[in-house]
Design goal:
The structure is a single chain. By secondary structure, the protein is mainly alpha-helical. Helix content is 42%, strand content 8%. It has a domain of 98 residues. The protein is built from 17 helices and 17 strands. Strands 3-2-4 form a 3-stranded parallel sheet, covered by helices on one side. Helix 3 runs parallel beside helix 5 and helix 5 crosses helix 11. The protein is globular and about 70 Å long. The chain starts with 36 loop residues before the first helix and ends in a 5-residue tail after the last helix.
Length: 556
């Protein structure tokens, strides 16, 4: 049974009209014309490519503001950026000061949200997304490398080096309103994959690739340290959590002004779901009431999103907003995995994040060993083993044969079955007994069209009945890694068939799919209701699944 609810009509966010003073022309299409799916994917990398010397790349379809491009305080203005001001009628400004760490600048202090400068061309996911995203880019990179686009893939990784150096960390994406959060940590995996591709492309000349690896090791170490910061610690578990250093509702939610009121409406309609997400307050607060709400909920005086986020005398709590922001750093926005609309994300140590960090530590050990740093390699391996012990202590459930997230505030393991339970296969965490348990647990997620995100239909996009390329590919690649080729093949065939059959119908590849019905048609009740065209990570997963099928017997 669906537990969601019907909201207002879908916003036409992909058709946002630009301010009259902006003369950037028509945004490049996200669906390249193609005779077949392989041709579509091959052409899509260029269709989805953006750069700072392209006027169309500077538009933010999610907000109705004129484009502003922000440069780091400490770098000289590149010549091509200077030309943008006259060619694109774009306002080029500098950030107020040099950024040394994430959260160093409060995005609310920047009057007009804008794009953050990156030096290299990059590939965007598709649809309304016109910036380079953190975890999307890993999967896009897999597709680029599979298609022989090594230079473009390397340039994207070097953009992340630039973000770490000049914006304090890898960001959710290169927009000013993302300066307080990151995204799932895949940098070490990106570095390793590009390094291997460079070795292959250089045909034996390893000096350039080795120098690049040494550079990447330093940035990867810095990125890994972010996840050891106090605000990312899940209590005393030795595990990490997702957390955003900002406060109140996210500014990018302006493109869906009904989202937060819809959350309130759902909570009021389901009083049996006991949360502390609601606080009382008048719909038209005076100055004193606004000051109170700034502490208990959000600051009406500085956030237009906050000013609309109320319903019948109810507002969302400040702690809910912390969870909502943490959910967005996780990339799974939204599901009911961490309470309704994942409003308690920051109270949990997730299996996905800690599996990624385990692999990250093994990758850093591998890099250190390659670079002749045996003592550092030993330290990274020790960190990985300590994390593995904590994962087994808090996140493994032997009776269920699955990994679950852990609420370190309530000192209890979740019971919410989620596809991220398979991340330990890909990361190399699971032992033989755990591998057997996960194989037996596959039935909870397998559907006719692929793997569903969860077993609960919450009415949100990251739950049943939807399947997404990133966790699906991580699960499938993990199965292949541990020798479960039969399941990896079958699931690749199912999800590939879903992507292909929908492509044959409308000649597009989408952000997500209803894997219960094998369809790209959605019935999302709240949150992001569109199914964007493009789509970078789905394109890449399709290529990877086709390669898996070819390597293990046959290609569809």
């Amino acid at each position: 049974m669906k537990h969601g609810f019907v909201t207002t009509a879908i916003l036409a966010i992909c058709q946002t009209v630009l301010p009259a003073q902006v003369t950037t022309g028509v945004k490049p299409p996200s669906a390249p014309a193609a005779a077949n799916i392989d041709q579509y994917i091959h052409r899509a990398w260029d269709t989805l490519a953006r750069s700072m010397i392209d006027c169309n790349s500077l538009i933010d379809p999610k907000l109705k503001t004129a484009p502003v491009l922000y440069l780091p305080q400490e770098i000289a203005e590149p010549a091509q950026v200077k030309a943008l001001q006259s060619q694109c009628k774009v306002d080029v400004e500098r950030l107020p000061r040099r950024i040394t760490h994430i959260g160093d600048i409060d995005p609310r202090s920047i009057k007009t949200p804008g794009l953050l400068y990156l030096p290299n061309k990059y590939v965007v996911p598709g649809g309304r997304f016109n910036e380079m995203y953190g975890w999307d880019s890993y999967f896009i990179l897999l597709g680029l490398l599979r298609d022989g686009r090594v230079d473009l893939a390397r340039g994207m990784v070097e953009n992340f080096f630039f973000e770490i150096e000049h914006y304090g960390s890898i960001l959710n994406a290169n927009r000013t309103y993302y300066l307080t959060r990151s995204q799932p940590p895949f940098l070490s995996s990106m570095i390793r994959d590009v390094y291997e591709a460079q070795l292959s492309a250089n045909k034996g000349d390893n000096k350039q690739a080795e120098a690049w690896l040494a550079k990447g090791y330093g940035f990867a170490t810095h990125d890994h340290d972010l996840w050891l910061s106090d605000f990312h610690r899940a209590g005393d578990t030795g595990l990490a959590r997702y957390f955003d250093l900002g406060e109140g509702p996210v500014p990018e939610q302006e493109d869906d002004s009904t989202y937060y009121p819809d959350v309130i409406r759902w909570l009021l309609a389901h009083p049996d779901m006991h949360t502390d997400y609601l606080v009382d307050g008048p719909d038209k607060p005076d100055a004193a009431e606004e000051a109170k709400l700034a502490k208990t909920s959000c600051d009406v005086s500085i956030s237009t999103v906050c000013a609309r986020a109320h319903l019948d005398g109810h507002w969302l709590s400040a702690d809910y907003y912390r969870g909502d922001r943490a959910m967005r750093e996780s990339g799974y926005d939204p599901s009911f995995r961490f309470g309704p609309f994942s409003g308690s994300t920051h109270h949990n140590a997730p299996i996905c994040l800690n599996s990624l960090l385990y692999k990250y530590e093994l990758d850093l050990a591998w890099m250190a060993d390659k670079l002749g740093k045996p003592s550092e390699a030993k330290q990274w391996n020790e960190q990985a083993e300590a994390r593995k012990a904590a994962i087994n202590k808090y996140l493994w459930n032997a009776s269920e044969g699955m990994y679950f997230d852990y609420d370190y505030m309530e000192h209890r393991q979740s019971t919410y079955r989620y596809i991220t339970t398979f991340f330990p296969l890909w990361a190399g965490v699971a032992d033989d007994q755990q591998i057997t348990g996960l194989k037996n647990a596959l039935h909870w997620f397998e559907q006719p069209g692929g793997m569903a995100m969860s077993t609960y239909d919450s009415g949100t996009q990251w739950d049943l009945p939807y399947g997404w390329a990133p966790p699906s590919w991580i699960a499938i690649a993990g199965m292949q890694k541990v020798g479960d080729v039969e399941d990896a093949r079958r699931l690749s065939e199912k999800f590939s068939a879903t992507i292909k059959s929908n492509f044959d119908r409308d000649h597009t590849i989408r952000e997500k799919y209803d894997v219960v019905h094998g369809s790209s048609q959605l019935d999302v009740a709240t949150g992001y209701k569109t199914n964007e065209i493009g789509f970078g990570w789905t394109n890449a997963a399709y290529l990877e699944m086709q390669q898996l099928l070819a390597d293990t017997g046959s290609k569809q």
